[in-house]
Amino acid sequence: MKTTGRVALALVALGLVLALGSYLFLRGHGFSSRAEPGELETFLARAVRRLATPMGVRDLKSPVPASAGALRLGLEHFADHCAMCHANDGSGNTEMGRGLYPKAPDMRLEATQSLTDGDLYYIIENGVPLTGMPAWGTATPDGEAASWHLVQFIRRLPELTETELKEMEAMNPKSAEEWNREQEIRRFLEGEGEAPKPGAPEHNHGGS
Amino acid sequence: MKETLFALLLAIAIAPVARAHEGHEHKVMGTVTMAAVDHVMVKTTEDKEVTIQVTKDTKVMKGEVAMKTEDIDAGTRVVVTAVTEKDQLKAKLIQVGADPDPK
Fold first, then answer.
1. Cβ neighbours of B10 in A, within 8 Å
2. 20 to 30 Å CA-CA from A129: which of A16, A42, A46, A194?
């Protein structure tokens, strides 16, 4: 057998072994969004996302001038539409964000902040396939302006103040149940109702 | 079809490195029985004793004012927002309420 034929056969055999191994692994473990992507997957996914971004998009410049007003609109929009997954502070530390696969990223970090404004705008408008990020684009001038406001706000995430976060909490959408729960918590903290009597701690830490 | 194929290829690539992850959020409402730098113990309104780990990311707020976990007096009302990680509750936010009853 020629060398080329042997190499081809070896590659086919390797492919079959990999496919069989993957099949057996998946049958044994299944899929779960509770898992975290490994480094290889993260690297591949980011590379594919980068490749799938059309030429010219990376260099897009915002047609919305940077201003306090635009930043405020971005903040309000983020609190209302994005914080459910990304959290008000952009950490992704929400019940929804932690349960996604991949988890909502901490947008205060380099991986997000190093993206260009064009990259961020494109992601907001078009989403990221096979993740929890939907496409928010409406193909309207107002929608595009709103996405640029968000880009400006995302740049602000690493420096958000406690005051801004507090303001955002008031803007987060809430169900009637959540609203009632908040009222219950407020009343409890203010001292209404009977508090449980604190007893002695029931565990020790193994020390003397 | 292309997306299904891509998902399959990704699944094959990541299968060996996928790890379990937990993260349910809980509200623990009650009075503090003991507070330390790294954990707080709370007697809940259901009369159970719960220990919650405090991390460097835990925020402790009394109204608008930040404070330290170890400065919370026993008997103080708190509402702890915590997540489950490896069978442990880890506090994200401790809201500190009214001072303990003077009895």
1. 41, 44-45, 130
2. A16
